[in-house]
Write a structure and sequence with these properties.
CATH class of the largest domain: Alpha Beta
Bound molecules: 3,4-dihydroxyphenylalanine
Order of helices and strands: HHHHHEEHEHEEHEEEHEHHH
CATH architecture of the largest domain: 2-Layer Sandwich
Number of helices: 12
Helix content: 40-55%
CATH topology of the largest domain: BirA Bifunctional Protein, domain 2
CATH superfamily of the largest domain: Bira Bifunctional Protein, Domain 2
Number of strands: 9
Strand order of the largest sheet: 1-4-5-9-8-7-6
Distance between the termini: 90 Å
Structural class: alpha+beta
Shape: elongated
Largest sheet: 7 strands, mixed
Radius of gyration: 42 Å
């Protein structure tokens, strides 16, 4: 019996030393020391031994188990070391390889213009207002004094969701929302996205941006409007910029005007940017119609106000000399990176 156990030890040690990886080492351990292992089997068979043999073989088996365990421990360390060396070799980092480029984005020119304009008006004491892009026809048209037969109400101009709900076609409904919830004095601008059922071409897009302005207080006059827009135009487009007002019609203002700025590229002589005109149309504006004030719960006998609304794409295109609006929406980084 003793002979057998010693032979088994020799064999086990040999196998352990020959193990090529941690897996086969573990197999060796199970084969000898596991529940069904060879050495465990000897212990199990002790019952059939004589009384003198039993303690001798018992002690021997324990000794052999210790030796095998020790050998497994040592071999395990060696194998682990070898495996680590192998992976380190395989995963060697080539520090001369070019790194992956981190693509940095830039702020979209439309957002840049909006931020700039916000800064200018915040500097004049305005607050920034916000309103929903999905709007009631009541706010987009009715409260703003647009007659039922106004052409902008047409399906061909405005995108409807139901008869009463639409995608706002202008930022002007925010005026009504602010007037209903705030008491004068009111001094706000509202930048935002607007929608119209226009087909896409170099100067039209069904989605674009506007900035609305509204001032309501006692004794607000057209002179305040003109002065404000002049400061805005000079700060936004350059100190030499001139502003001119042309009479116009909007349902929500009376009197109404369109404001043009002198071309800041040619200074008014006529060039490619102003299409030879010397002037660039900037925005619509006017004195808030008494009916609009009334519709929104403000007493027109006590208060007056002015309002204006301008297209952001138009300003961006003029300011950066962009001749096709589609460029602003295609989001080609090669284009956007230039601003
Ligand atoms: N909402 C007008 C438009 O989309 C622009 C506008 C004109 C806004 C005159 C105003 C205004 O507040 O007073 O064409």
């Amino acid at each position: 019996m003793k002979e057998e156990v010693l032979k088994m030890k020799e064999k086990a040690i040999q196998e352990i030393q020959n193990a090529e990886d941690l897996n086969s080492l573990e197999n060796c351990r199970v084969n000898y020391l596991g529940k069904k292992g060879e050495l465990t089997a000897v212990l199990r068979g002790m019952g059939s031994l004589s009384a003198e043999e039993r303690p001798v073989i018992g002690a021997l088996v324990n000794e052999v188990r210790d030796e095998i365990e020790k050998e497994i421990g040592v071999t395990k360390q060696n194998l682990k070391k070898k495996e680590l060396e192998k992976t380190l070799k395989q995963e060697k980092i080539d520090i001369t390889m070019p790194s992956k480029k981190q693509e940095l984005g830039s702020i979209h020119p439309i957002t840049q213009i909006i931020d700039e304009i916000k800064e200018i008006f915040i500097g004049m004491g305005y607050e920034i207002a916000d309103g929903p892009e999905i709007e009631y026809a009541e706010y987009n048209f009715d409260k703003l004094n647009a007659p039922k037969n106004h052409p902008s109400r047409d399906l061909q101009d405005t995108m409807y969701i139901t008869d009463e709900i639409l995608l706002r076609s202008q930022t002007s409904p925010v005026q009504a929302r602010v007037m209903e919830t705030q008491k004068p004095p009111i001094k706000i601008i509202c930048p935002g996205t607007v929608y119209r059922s226009d087909s896409i071409d170099s100067t039209h897009s069904p989605v674009f941006h506007q900035i609305e302005g509204l001032v309501i207080d006692t004794h607000v006059t057209m002179a305040d409007l003109k002065g404000t827009l002049e400061v805005f135009a000079k700060k936004c487009l350059g100190e030499k910029t001139q502003v001119r007002f042309r009479p116009h019609h909007f349902p929500f203002t009376e009197p109404s005007a369109e404001a043009d700025v002198s071309c800041f590229v040619c200074g008014g002589k006529g060039c490619r940017v102003c299409k030879g005109e010397g002037w660039i149309e900037l925005l619509g504006c006017g004195m808030v119609h008494p009916k609009v004030l009334q519709n929104c719960g403000i007493d027109p006998k006590e208060y007056t106000g002015f309002a204006f609304g301008c297209g952001v794409e138009r300003i961006a295109m003029a300011k950066y000399g962009i001749d096709d609006m589609r460029l602003l929406f295609e989001n080609d980084v090669r284009f956007l990176k230039q601003f």
